[in-house]
């Protein structure tokens, strides 16, 4: 794969990770047309998917896809079972995704099955399970030279079937694009392609980025001295130091802070954040809110935890010297 394209795909998958929570190994719902295309272009399913998605993959075949593949297969006269086609990889490579759409779990139409897995909820279109769809157009109808020998009726029927299959494949992709957060891989000629984000996906992604920008700005105003990430680790250590020296003088103001904090939780978020920065300004040290709250919870639950901890600290060195 060209370097430029792989970079583009890596970036795209990174966006799916940030905006929709995709994680490796990526779960890829593979449809029957993709398997036919991969086989006819002599591609290796997993390496091809991993090159395209720029990460580890876990391909899955739904029970309904398998049923649709087997339905078109001739039966083995000895076992009376349909013969496994060459293009169908073994279950070790492509495990079955069990799906049950009705009471007796009869397989349903492949397109409906895949769309129902991509968006299981009836009220909201959401790719809850973070599936990636890997599909392809159905194989082109057999060449003219082959059909010329057959009777006209049969040729027409094949062409109609081909058209129907193409329509189904297009409906599947259209349906998948309408669900936000569904990466779509498809094989075009002999190339595996990762589609750009659909408009619904892009809409969600932009919303997520805007939120991040907004919270990022407010975080900075609150944690001026703390720092966004480095402060987090410091916070955990600082409370212990503060507890030791003067628990009595610290406790009373802490209660007030807690009351404020609980009241704030009920208020709208923006207001709470505003108050927070004000409070920080009053205190002089712009310590972030989570730290205070956590510190208090601990104290409230364990009673005089401050005292306990100082005891623990006091005994610790003795134990150390004993050993
Ligand atoms: Zn199904």
CATH level 4 superfamily of one domain: 5'-nuclease
Instruction: Please report the total strand number as a whole number.
Output: 6
What is the CATH first-level class name of one domain? Answer: Alpha Beta
Order of helices and strands: HEHHEHEHEHHEEHHHHHH
Structural class: alpha/beta
CATH architecture identity of one domain? 3-Layer(aba) Sandwich
Outline the biggest β-sheet: 6 strands, mixed
Q: Indicate the proportion of strand residues.
A: 5-15%
Uncertain spans: 223-236, 298-323
From the alpha carbons, calculate the radius of gyration and give it in angstroms.
30 Å
Mean pLDDT: 78
If you consult CATH, what is the topology of one domain? Rossmann fold
Number of helices, where a helix is a run of at least 4 consecutive DSSP H or I residues: 13
Terminus-to-terminus distance: 61 Å
GO molecular function: small ribosomal subunit rRNA binding
Protein name: rRNA processing protein, putative (AFU_orthologue AFUA_1G02610)
GO cellular component, one term: nucleolus
Keywords: Nucleus
């Amino acid at each position: 794969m060209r370097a430029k394209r792989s970079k583009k795909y890596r970036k795209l998958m990174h966006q799916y990770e940030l905006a929709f929570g995709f994680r490796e190994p990526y779960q890829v719902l593979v449809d029957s047309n993709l398997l036919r295309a991969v086989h006819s272009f002599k591609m290796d399913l997993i390496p091809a998917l991993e090159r395209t998605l720029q990460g580890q993959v876990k391909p899955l075949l739904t029970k309904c896809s398998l049923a649709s593949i087997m339905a078109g297969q001739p039966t083995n006269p000895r076992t009376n079972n349909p013969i496994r086609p060459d293009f169908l990889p073994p279950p070790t490579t492509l495990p079955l995704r069990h799906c049950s759409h009705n009471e007796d779990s009869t397989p349903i139409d492949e397109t409906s099955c895949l769309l129902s897995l991509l968006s299981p909820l009836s009220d909201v279109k959401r790719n809850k399970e973070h599936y990636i769809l890997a599909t392809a157009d159905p194989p082109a109808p057999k060449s003219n030279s082959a059909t010329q020998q057959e009777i006209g009726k049969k040729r027409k029927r094949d062409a109609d079937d081909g058209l129907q299959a193409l329509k189904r494949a297009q409906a599947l992709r259209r349906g998948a694009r309408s669900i936000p957060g569904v990466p779509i891989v498809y094989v075009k000629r002999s190339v595996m392609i990762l589609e750009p984000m659909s408009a619904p996906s892009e809409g969600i992604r932009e919303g997520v980025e805007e939120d991040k920008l907004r919270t990022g700005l407010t975080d900075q105003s609150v944690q001026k001295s703390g720092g966004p990430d480095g402060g987090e680790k410091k916070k955990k250590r600082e409370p212990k130091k503060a507890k030791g020296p003067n628990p009595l003088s610290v406790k009373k103001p802490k209660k007030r802070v807690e009351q404020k904090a609980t009241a704030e939780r009920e208020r709208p978020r923006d207001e709470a954040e505003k108050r927070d920065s004000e409070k920080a300004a009053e205190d002089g040290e712009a310590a972030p809110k989570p730290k205070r709250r956590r510190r208090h919870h601990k104290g409230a639950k364990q009673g005089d935890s401050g005292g306990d901890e100082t005891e623990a600290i006091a005994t610790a060195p003795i134990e150390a010297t004993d050993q």
